[in-house]
Amino acid sequence: MILIKDLKNRLGLLAVLILLSTNTFAQTEGEQIFKQNCTACHTIGNGRLVGPDLEGITKKRDATWLSAWITNSSELIASGDADAIAIFKEYNNIPMTAYDFSDKEMKSLLEYLAIEVEEDVATAKVGTEATSKGMSSTTLLLIVAVVLLLLIFVLTSVKNSLKESLQQPTETVFETIENFFKAIWANSPAVVALVFVVFIILLKVAFDAMMGVGVTTNYMPEQPIAYSHKIHAGDNGIDCNYCHTGARNSKMAGIPSANVCMNCHTYISSGSTTGETEIAKIYDAIGFDVKTRTYIEGYEQKPIKWVRIHNLPDLSYFNHSQHVTVGKIECQECHGAIEEMDVVRQENDLTMGWCIECHKETEVKMEGNDYYTLMHEKMKEKYAGQKITVDKIGGLECGKCHY
Amino acid sequence: MNNVILKIGLLAGVIFLSACTGGDSSPGYEFMPNMYRSASLETYGENTITGMNALQPVEGTVARGHLSTFNYDETLEGYLSAGENAVNPIKNTPENMADGKALYGMFCEHCHGKTGAGDGTVMHALYSAVPHYNDNKLLRRCNLPMCDLKAGHIFHAITFGLNSMGPHASQINEEERWKITLYIQEELQHYGLE
């Protein structure tokens, strides 16, 4: 009996769930149609793109006119409808794709457009709320240090008051430290050991400092625009070569000029983490008016002064195309997991030892390199049974990189 | 007493120094900085005469080997006329197709998707309505469905952009654009269509 009751309850719950899900599905069908067909040219409340902003469109035009336009705008224009002709002219005579929606689809799309007007404002407000940042590790450390220092003084005063109650002589913190070092100083083996340890530490510090001259591992300067490789290359999966077009065919990988940013940011003017402030810096550099989505005429463009991170000294030659196109080395092998970095950090030390290590291990990619077929055949004969690594084709010769 | 202070100072100094592992926002020390910041002009540096080292080519000049054979305007008329007249100079060979596929992967796939179904990895809502290359129903501005677009239409769109797609001429040269066009026409326009 209990079992049956339980089953009934569960079935009831299931029914409610199904009802709820179909209900939300009905609401989102129009949204789905909009997202799959319209967003390439229209926004709701985010300004004009290729076509007009559709915010409040259902109030401006009636449903029959809208469905006639969506089904075949050219026919509507040809029929001499004044509104249709005006819109066609305003948007550079570009005809809108004719959509053959069923009556039901058209209805849910128009319903979605009507609902979206109010909702968009609500979601926009949620989006602008700034997320509070966590405390930085430095401030945390400082707080811990202050607390510990306070603890020393508190404990000393406790000790002193105890001693006073026992009528023993008291001493301050500084006297305690002094007595401690006096005791060590009086013990000559301890002094020798201490001096030795200090000497070794100093030597190590000095050695590391010398080895670190000109090596900028972990360098991650703040850039003029808080561009995140994680968002672009990681989350959105844009290929490195899309922006760094030089990497395939020239010495420099290339810093994309602002027009490459504008391929997408002509229309995307609000970022997922920084809002509009960072993307507005691109517009400021290139001279773009977000409101009208046009370039400002006669604008004096300003270069974006990116801070260089990976910098080889002039005494060594490095060519990206040689590594990327011929060697087929992944960008990440030298630059680390850039697609996970919000702020780019120099992953490897870029020292000569690092270069050579890789040249000794990396095998030469011979497939699809017809120009050198003859040489490659000879090498296979000469090094039969061995891996043909970069050092075997002269990858360790001084003059290859230093000339 | 003096000795003790000296000792404490020394210890504190060592601890202080060992904490200096080079701040992340600073590149650290340089020996002979001229080798890192040379007097000669670096690719993306600046100079006192012209400002930026990177300059635009002089107007009216053509880079050697880059004389364009594609002379159509960035207008709807240009688009339509390119579709009618432009011919893909790239031959359909396995090498060109492989190049086209690789280039498509670098420059197109994140929006248009691996099979051209518009299901790329870019998540922004704006790019959720990317047309399918194999769409044979909706008529586009050239009065043809996506699957029947001509080489000229595709090349014009890559070069000058179309709708929410930006112009890609600065990133991909003409030969590469034709290779991508070839790949799209051969592989993707009829993907899964009979």
What does this entry look like structurally?
- The complex is a heterodimer of chains A (403) and B (194).
- In chain A, 55% of the residues lie in helices and 1% in strands.
- Chain A contains 18 helices and two strands.
- Residues 14-24 and 120-133 of chain A have low confidence and may be disordered.
- The longest helix of chain A is centred in the N-terminal third of the chain and has 36 residues, at 2-37.
- Chain A is mainly α and 403 residues long.
- Among the domains of chain A are: 26-127, Cytochrome c-like domain (Cytochrome Bc1 Complex, Chain D, domain 2, Orthogonal Bundle), CATH 1.10.760; 139-211, no CATH class; 351-403, no CATH class.
- Chain A has helices at residues 2-37, 57-60, 63-71, 73-78, 82-90, 103-128, 137-165, 173-186, 188-211, 229-235, 240-243, 258-265, 277-286, 320-326, 331-335, 352-361, 373-382, 398-401; strands at residues 288-289, 294-295.
- In chain A, a hairpin with a 4-residue loop joins strand 1 and strand 2.
- In chain A, strands 1-2 form a two-stranded antiparallel ribbon.
- Chain B is mostly helical and 194 residues long.
- Chain B has a domain at 76-188: Cytochrome c-like domain (Cytochrome Bc1 Complex, Chain D, domain 2).
- Chain B has six helices and two strands.
- In chain B, strands 1-2 form a two-stranded antiparallel sheet.
- In chain B, helix 2 (76-85) packs antiparallel against helix 5 (151-160), helix 3 crosses helix 6 (174-188) and helix 5 crosses helix 6.
- The longest helix of chain B is centred in the first third of the chain and has 17 residues, at 2-18.
- Chain B is elongated and about 95 Å long.
- The termini of chain B are far apart.
- The model of chain B has no long low-confidence stretch (mean pLDDT 84).
- At the A-B interface, helix 1, helix 8, helix 9, helix 11 and helix 12 of A face helix 1, strand 2 and helix 3 of B.
